[in-house]
Amino acid sequence: MIKRATPGADKRQVGLENREWHGQPSERQRSAARRSALALLAVVVAGLVLAGIARWLTPVRPASYGGLQRTHVGDTHFSILPGLPGITIRGDALYASNDPWRAYLAPERTCPGGERLDLPLAQQAQVMACLVDYARHVRGLGPLRPVTLLNGSAALKAGKITECSDFSHNACGEDAAADVRGAGYHGAWGENLFIAEGKWGAPRPTLDGWLNSPSHRENLLDPQWRTEGIAVETRARFLRGRNVTIWVHQLATG
Q: Which one has a higher pLDDT value, 142 or 60?
């Protein structure tokens, strides 16, 4: 702020008459004040322009995403001769005996159906939402709100993965964010993928897989997320697997 002096008031204070020779210094003062005001205005305008350019050049926070594929050996049953009792060789367990993230897995009474593959896919997605909220609660985070936009974009991603037999965030050669951006969301977002055969594709083992993967766990338990979308697809055969389940979990700030 520029405070301009009042020549007349100064003269009254010192008892000087208003003579012509006082006019020239006053004009210089007014000119200097105008120049100072113009300079200040130029600085402000330049600052605003630079701030706008910086904001335009600063990229939106990049998406965080990861894909996880689990391969396990299931139980094998065989008999030496027909009619004789068979032998069963146990395969991999659903969860590791020393699983450090076991406490983040909701018990059956909290999220029923966590290990069931016979439930309708929509119900399996609801079970997954329950499991995710429980894991985030253990971490001290709030629940995520399902939104139609993200459910839709997650479903589109799952569809492209199966359509193009391409288990990746860039399925069918498209940008990872193509579906969510095309749906009209342009904020920060994240995406976790999962694919597994048989019982390891159920909601609870899937979440356990994400929790035991550092990058997926970091994405899943990111405190910035507020909303989510979940899609699940099953295929009798996909790539080189059988009875395959594919999960797409998208997270966003709004």
A: 142
Distance (Å, whole) CA 202 – CA 113: 9
Identify which has the larger pLDDT, 101 or 27: 101
Q: How high is the pLDDT of residue 93? A: 83
Return the amino acid letter for 126: Q
Between CA 138 and CA 144 the distance in angstroms is: 14
Residue 87 in tokens: 């032998």
Residue 246, beta-bridge partner list? 195, 233
Helices and strands of the chain, counted as H and E runs: 7, 7
Instruction: Please name the residue ranges forming H helices in 75-170.
Output: 121-138, 148-163
Q: Do 33 and 2 touch, CB atoms closer than 8 A?
A: yes
Comparing 54 with 180, the larger pLDDT belongs to 180
Which residues pair with residue 145 across a beta bridge? 227
Instruction: Give pTM, 2 decimals.
Output: 0.69
Nearest to 250 by CA among 165, 160, 151: 151
Phi-psi region of 124 (alpha: psi -120 to 50; beta: other; left: phi over 0): alpha
Q: What is the pLDDT of residue 92?
A: 74
pLDDT in tens, 113-135: 999 999 999 999 999 999 999 99
Beta bridge partners of 44: none
Report strand pairing: 76-78 vs 145-146: unpaired
Q: How many CB atoms lie within 10 A of CB 164?
A: 13
CB atoms within 10 A of CB 112: 14
DSSP class per residue in 171-206:
GGG--TTHHHHHTT--S-EEEEEEEEEGGGGSHHHH
CA distance 228 to 150: 6
